[in-house]
Specification:
CATH topology: BirA Bifunctional Protein, domain 2
Helix content: 10-25%
Number of strands: 9
Radius of gyration: 17 Å
CATH class: Alpha Beta
Order of helices and strands: HEEEEEHHEEEEH
Distance between the termini: 22 Å
Strand order of the largest sheet: 1-5-9-8-7-6
Number of domains: 1
Strand content: 15-25%
Number of helices: 4
Length: 213
């Protein structure tokens, strides 16, 4: 990704890489060692994306959109919104309602009712001038998709991870995305039986649609 981004030109077509990683913890630029509770035999890899520590492993769809934002005509904040929207639309196709939480990138689901469309009280809201950022509130929620990006020369790399059907135990060895006690879920644990291949295909199509200028 770094090489692709460093060598691309204004004429280089955007790309989307979809993959599945072997077990690995990745640490973002702001990552703190005290969020690595007990990594054990799973390797820890330092990356240059934003954010804290997360886990990648089999049964998780990882997507890396490589987008020239200058050519696309939108800024980083909107890019993040569009990526999250692709995840929300993917989940909706499987009968699951994805939610945003103020101050915490990624997508979350209600643990007691994953299909509920009721707005979260902790959803992002427009802040009054001078109003401080609220601390993220994960009450009743599980994180189903993580987001960590990097932008260089107006071009994006790194991306997102959507949990499908995986061993979730490694998430207990870390403070996921820097939040102690944050519960991580996948589609399987909330009752959705869908294959990795189908999820990857749907997510790919939704990303292509939402990232198109």
């Amino acid at each position: 990704m770094q090489t692709f981004t460093a060598t691309r030109t204004a004429d280089t077509a955007d790309d989307l890489w979809i993959c599945e990683h072997d077990p690995v913890f990745t640490q973002g630029l702001a990552g703190r060692d005290d969020h690595l509770l007990a990594p054990g035999d799973i390797p820890v890899v330092a990356t240059n994306r934003g954010g804290q520590v997360t886990y990648h492993g089999p049964g998780q769809v990882v997507a890396y959109p490589l987008v020239d934002l200058q050519r696309a005509g939108y800024f980083v904040k909107e890019y993040v919104y569009r990526v999250e929207e692709a995840v929300i639309r993917t989940l909706a196709g499987f009968g699951v309602t994805g939610h945003r939480v103020a101050g915490a990138p990624g997508i979350y689901v209600r643990l007691d009712d994953p299909g509920s469309h009721a707005p979260l009280p902790q959803r992002p809201r427009k802040r009054a001038t001078g109003e401080p950022l609220a601390n993220p509130d994960f009450t009743g929620l599980g994180k189903i998709a993580a987001l960590g990006i990097k932008v260089s020369r107006h071009c994006t790399y790194h991306g997102l991870a959507l949990n499908v059907a995986m061993d979730l135990q490694p998430f207990q060895r870390i403070n996921p995305c820097g939040y102690a006690g944050l519960q991580t879920v996948d589609l399987s644990t909330i009752g959705v039986a869908v294959s990795w291949d189908e999820t990857a295909e749907v997510l790919s199509q939704k990303l292509k649609a939402t990232l198109t200028p």
